[in-house]
């Protein structure tokens, strides 16, 4: 039988979601997140690219120009390390962007960096931060913001039942998850001009693992 992550790779190629989560994720908390700027409407929808690669530069609804870069310093890339929109539903989230890696050693990972033309206070979901169980992967994600080069931690990282917060800006999967219990709500309440998401391995797994990022909200 094909593994869930093997199925994801097939589904992403076909542009079709292969499963529906048994619970329905509402985005009310992200949409209603309040920083010093007030309520945070959606500004970037990753479904825009309908299963294709997320471009290196794109424009948010309010005119903010977003530049995305990726790096693979540990050499863990495979065909899915480049961030792309997954055209389907993952852990209750429709059409997130995903990035994956394979052949990782302990501490190896892939970095995605977003640079904003003006400071913003983003809120968004990290999707499917979980563990393979039984010696499989343990998704670990570090979320770092900065403003003018000075670090800014998220105001909150709201975890689900299948992951835990291990530092002010880091979460780790602890259980397998096909539901919203594997998602994280990230909220910045101070302006940042750079956002970095580092997805890394804390096992010596040589198989495939991945995470998703859902739409950015700010005001």
Walk me through the topology.
Blueprint: H1 4-14, H2 28-31, E1 34-35, E2 38-39, E3 42-44, E4 57-59, E5 65-71, E6 84-85, E7 89-90, E8 93-94, E9 97-102, E10 109-120, E11 123-127, E12 140-147, E13 150-152, E14 156-158, E15 163-167, E16 170-173, E17 184-187, E18 192-200, E19 208-213, E20 216-217
Antiparallel strand pairs: 1-2, 3-20, 4-5, 5-10, 6-9, 7-8, 9-19, 10-18, 11-17, 11-19, 12-13, 12-16, 12-18, 14-17, 15-16
Short description:
This protein has 2 helices and 20 strands.
What features would you describe in this structure?
This protein is mostly beta strands and 219 residues long. 7% of the residues lie in helices and 41% in strands. The chain has two helices and 20 strands.
Short key terms for the protein model shown above:
219 residues, mainly beta, Jelly Rolls, 8-stranded antiparallel sheet, 6-stranded antiparallel sheet, 2 helices, 20 strands, globular
CATH architecture: Sandwich
The radius of gyration computed from the alpha-carbon positions, rounded to a whole number of angstroms, is 16 Å
- Beta content comes to 35-45%
Order of helices and strands: HHEEEEEEEEEEEEEEEEEEEE
Mean pLDDT: 83
* Termini Cα gap: 45 Å
Count of spatially separate domains: 1
Shape: globular
What's the helix count?
2
User: What is the percent of helical residues?
Assistant: under 10%
How would you classify the helix and strand content by structural class? mainly beta
CATH topology value? Jelly Rolls
- Care to count the β-strands? 20
Strand count, sense and barrel status of the largest sheet are: 8 strands, antiparallel
